[in-house]
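Troubleshooting log. The previous run stalled partway through. Resubmitting the same two chains, unchanged.
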Amino acid sequence: MKEPIYADTLPGGKHWSLVMRRNTRLRLIDIDGGGNVGMLFYNPLNPTERYNAPDTLKCQHTFKLTAGHCLYSDMGRIFCSIVRDTFGWHDTVCGNTTKAIIARKWGEKSYQAARNDWQQNGYDSFLVEAAKYGLSRRDLASNVNWFSKVTVADDGTLALDPSGVRAGAEVELRFEMDTLVLFHTCPHPLSQAIQYPHRPIRFEITEGPPASADDPARLSAPENSRGFENNRIFFAGCCGEAH
Amino acid sequence: MIIESKLDAARVTYRKVVAAGDYWMHVVRKGETLRILDLEGNQAADTLFFNADRPEERYSASDTIREQGNIYLSAGSVLLSNLCQPMLTITADTVGRHDTLGGACATESNTVRYALEKKSMHACRDSFLLAVAENDHYGLSKRDIAHNINFFMNVPVTPDGRLTFADGLSAPGKYVEMTAHMNVIVLISNCPQLNNPCNAYNPTPIEVLIWGEGG
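Second attempt completed without errors. Output:
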């Protein structure tokens, strides 16, 4: 496996953002198990193009995200595909913790009292990262929650299923176009943890080959081959590359 | 949950038939009740809500389903905003289940779902975009077009995590009713989709009706 171009660990309950170039990869590692990574995606050329969870789900007839799936923008293009996943089922419908949810679950822990061990929430984390690029609450959307498995019972009841949680679980994304990535390591909003879970996440950026003609993500559904074709058309127009 | 309306049809203060493929954008005031009526059955009413006094506050599918702990909307569901504030409560429903996971159709997502050649076919997202452009006094734009409700649509999730578009539970004359907790801009795209068997490839009109506070 190639050495990462860059690697870092984000402590639990923090937020960050970066722009991923097309064909670079982002690997996320749930170091201790029980982590959660909220994530949103934007086209840096036109940030009104953003991650669209409903399109991602309905284009692939899935409720969960795992290896072979593509993450779609509202413009029919693929921000990234999931090339490796040892966790197996990630949520993209439950949204974020808010200040009120955190207070209800785990009490209030102010910055003044706790300094950087305070209990940040996912929604405010996205507001801060979005603002760095001139974006506001109007630009937020339903996010991915990596390492959080949410199931649905026959009657529609949602539940966070911790059965798959384990230290060292990994998911790797290959970016299919240049993408602004906002992320946080705040707990999943359905977390039943006794205390606010501060779970660190390692993230690694690597170079890798682009999707081949027989790439599993491209072939996992006929819809995805059309999504890749939409990306190709986009590059033909904006970047002078048609491969 | 099936709950019949207690409202008197004679006391309705506003009613309008919305043809398939058209949009309807209208302010429903705090305390008023909106009924959406599926005139011919298995139509999809793709619906967005905005706080009329502060339009950056809008309906949030993820906050709504998470806080009620259930993916389906029906009588008793409180429709929450992106600030987790109650915007409307569903007070009557003769269908039993409505979707808020599937989002709206768009010309671009149609290219992925059906064929690249479908990109010129009319889609809900085009209606939403035309609505905010034609009604620019609200200050809304593409940024504000988020994940909607599909009234009358049935989108079950299987235990192994599949998402399916099942046969509708709706039928001619079924309806859903909701009372507003704030002044809300209601934006409905009466879905023009011709590629999906869930409406038998035949989109049909809906009717919207409004009652004043207290019915």
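Takeaways: The mean pLDDT of chain B is 96. Helices of chain B lie at 61-68, 107-113, 124-134.
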